[in-house]
Amino acid sequence: MTRTVLVTGISRHIGARLASVLAADPAVSRVIGVDTVPPASLVRDGGAPSDPLGRVEFVRVDLRSPDIAQVIAAADIDTVVHMSLMSGPGGSRPAMKEHNVIGTMQLLAACQRSETVRRVVVRSTTAVYGSSPTDPAVFTEDSEPVEVPHTGYGKDASEVEGYVRGYSRRRPDVVTTTLRFANFIGPRVDSPLTRYFQSPILPTVLGFDPRLQFIHEDDGVELLRRVALDDHPGVFNVAGDGVLLLSQCLRRAGRFWLPVPSPAFRFLGEGARALGRMDFTPEQLALMSHGRVVDSAKLGHELGWAPKFTTASAFDDFLQTRLGRSVR
Which of 40, 72, 170, 235 is close enough to 178 for a disulfide, judged by CB 3.0 to 4.6 Å? Predict the structure, then answer.
C-alpha cells in the first residue's frame, strides 16, 4: 500500500530532510509539505543538496487557520507527520505558543474530521520532563515530571501531548505515535544549543555540571521515516546511548568556559540573544543547571531499532563538521 504523507514544518531543516527522504521512498506515492514559508531547498538523506522541493509538493498554509483541513481532504492524506513545533522563539513568546498549541489543535481537529487519515506522528521533546534537582536519574516514558514545565517549549510540548492523547481517545482507529526527542545535533542543525557550543567563550552555571543527551539528525530522520511508514503506536523517548557532562562537551569542543552565578548566566544569554547569537530561556537555564537523561530502551523493544550514533559520537560529528575539530 502506497502512502500519501503530509509533513508540517517543512521550512525547517529536519522537516525538509524527512520530506525529501519520504518522497524518495517507493512506498510513498505523494508527499505534501506545509508551512507558512517555503523551504530554501530540500536535502537528500546524507545531507547532499537537491533541487528545491524535488518531488515534494509545497503548500503554503498556516496551521492556526482551518485551511489545513482543506489540504488534508483534497489530497486524501493517510499519514500526517507533525514537525512544526517551534523549539526557540522566532518572534514573541505568545506567537510561539500560538503557533505550537493552537496550530496543533487545528491540525488534530482536521485529522479527526478526515475519513482518510490512518496514522499521526508527532515530534515532541524530552523537555516535557522538565529539569530539576529532584529529578530521577533516568526518565522513562511512564515517568511524571517532578516539576512540570511552566514556560517555553517544554510547556507547549506538554500541552500538545495532552491534545494528542485526547485525539487518540476520540479516534482509536488512527495510529498515533509521539516521539520525545533529546536535543538534535549534527552537521546542519541550528539551535540555541548548537550556537552555544560554537561560541568562543561559554558561560556555565557556577556549581553545576549537568548530564546531557543528544540525538543525531541522521538517526532522527531515519526514525521518523520508519514510524511514518509502519504502525508503532505509543510514546517513545529518543536519545543516543550514553550521556556527556557539560564539562566533557566543552573540553571536546576545545572551548574556554566561564562559571558564573545563575542570574549572570541568564543575563549573558539575554545579551547574546540581542546580538542574534543564542537565547537562554528559564527552561534552558534549568537544563544547563540540572541536565536531563532519558531511557530509550522502549524503541529497541518495540521497533527493533536503535540510533547508530551514541550521544558522544553524535556530538563528535557535530564538532568535526561544524568546528573542524577531531576528537580522539
Answer: 235
